[in-house]
Amino acid sequence: MSPLAGRVALVTGAARGMGLAHARALADLGCRVIMVDRDEPETEVPGAVVALTDITAVEAPDELLRIAQNECGRLDILVHNAGLMHDWRTLDATAPSDLDRYLAVNVTAPYALTRAAAPLLRRSPYGRVVFISSQWGQVPDGHSYGYMISKAAQLGLMKALAAELVTDGVLVNAITPGAIHTRMVQDEKYDEEVAAVPLGRLGRPDEIASIVAFLASDASSFITGQVIAANGGALVVGI
Ligand SMILES: NC(=O)c1ccc[n+]([C@@H]2O[C@H](COP(=O)([O-])OP(=O)(O)OC[C@H]3O[C@@H](n4cnc5c(N)ncnc54)[C@H](O)[C@@H]3O)[C@@H](O)[C@H]2O)c1
After folding, report:
1. Other C-beta atoms lying within 10 Å of the C-beta of residue 9
2. What CATH number does domain 8-230 carry, 3.30.70.270, 3.40.50.720, 3.40.640.10, 3.40.190.10?
3. What is the pTM of this model?
């Protein structure tokens, strides 16, 4: 039998890139997946429910939880993956209000969605929350204040949720990818990004999805409040 058969996972930003890879990996393990995105998925995932939703909309958490409850009857795994591209601007070029859209997608929306999902996650014997943060949440990137601050804030939110939800057996962790080959790594930045990775190549979405699958599985049953870095060696050489 598939190891996660009968469990339901909701993945945000699942239309393409890493989110699509997480959805596929979880479906391969037997999960019913709810794929949330503003856009239609680039490819189908077997058995998945597609929710075309902007996660920053005020009504999004209730709408998504209604889908989980009505169409799947439960929710076990929540993957906060949706995100926005860097805007490559310095301090002088960044107005305080430029931070808002990053904080909305990376912090407020995952907070609101986890809050709405908490009753179902607490009811699950397998409750899991996984944040896709970034290596730029661990070290400064000098490119994008909104991106960097909101990705660091995700790690704080992850730890706060882990501390509160652990009493109900819900495990909350984060992954901090380095440069991964998706649309977020723009073509004109490709060579520069590859040059910065000691392993000599960009990561693949499935290399992050396999960590999501591990954190969603019973194999991670004693891990919570942790950050798993996957960056091809970038942080070990101080990039
Ligand atoms: N690609 C990288 O090098 C890299 C590195 C570290 C972290 N990350 C993070 O990984 C996650 C996935 O990134 P990716 O590279 O696959 O990017 P991507 O641009 O390919 O995919 C992001 C997805 O999120 C969706 N999305 C954005 N805002 C949304 C909203 N308000 N509501 C619903 N959906 C929304 C987009 O439509 C898109 O499908 C992001 O959080 C990103 O910050 C990416």
Report:
1. 30
2. 3.40.50.720
3. 0.98
